[in-house]
Amino acid sequence: MNRAASGASLLALVAAVFTVTPAHTHEQQHFSTGEPGNPKRPARAIQVTMREIDGKMVYIPERIEVRKGEQIRFLLRNSGRLDHEFLLATTDENLKHAEEMKKNPDMEHDEPNGTRLAPNKSGEIVWRFTKPGTFEYGCLIPGHREAGMTGTIVVK
Ligand SMILES: [Cu+2]
Q: Which of 56, 109, 144, 148 has the fewest CB atoms within 10 Å of its CB?
């Protein structure tokens, strides 16, 4: 492919991404745990480390409490030797999603409420918890949940 052609396909890709954005924004209302945060607004930073330890896979910490309406900046770090995910949802949603991942283990996540990190990588999610209740963060890579990879978020 010549330069002009690849430039044109890149433009097409960029245009496609921008076209998709409004639909995505609309879908935000469906998140059961709240809504994507506004990075320009103040947020409480909470560090979450993901790793394997003693034959288990864990989040540190495994329990987080937030106030309703609070915006949190999750500073995520994968200190393990395997890929790990951090997906904010209800337990039901994560269980359903985990079933889909078993059929499709290479499924990539690029959603506002979750991310996947390679070993030694860091990432960030800014989230506003708008609903009281108990939610979770989980890793949906097959086998990881079973190995212990869930954490609890209590929104008061
Ligand atoms: Cu994992």
A: 56
